[in-house]
Recover the amino acids of this structure.
């Protein structure tokens, strides 16, 4: 039997996130993850510090980052940011993972 948290994780990964903004431009940023702990649903709450090409830094909280996204950030030390103001998307072009909570 599938538990409710597992079912919720499956829905999150199988259905498109309808709240994600449309993204026309992606910007590659250097990324440094703070320590995080995996949850049973295959996600983790993580904080990432982004250094944009112009040298500015931004910190974003990813409340339910998929572990594959966190692994990719760890391996590449980069993350792509879609959008410039308001709510943005982070991930990789063509495969946005999450809308972070800006901090």
């Amino acid at each position: 039997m599938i538990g409710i948290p597992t079912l919720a994780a499956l829905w999150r990964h199988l259905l498109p996130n309808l709240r994600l903004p449309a993204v026309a431009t992606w910007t590659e940023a250097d990324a440094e993850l703070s320590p995080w702990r995996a949850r049973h649903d295959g996600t983790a709450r993580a904080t990432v510090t982004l250094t944009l090409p112009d040298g500015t830094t931004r910190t974003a909280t990813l409340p339910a980052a998929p572990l594959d996204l966190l692994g990719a950030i760890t391996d590449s030390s980069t993350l792509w940011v879609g959008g410039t103001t308001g709510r943005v998307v982070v991930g990789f072009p063509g495969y946005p993972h999450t809308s972070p909570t800006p901090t």
Summary: Strands lie at 26-33, 43-51, 57-66, 78-82, 89-92, 95-98, 101-102. Confidence is low (pLDDT under 50) at residues 1-18. The two ends are 38 Å apart (CA to CA).
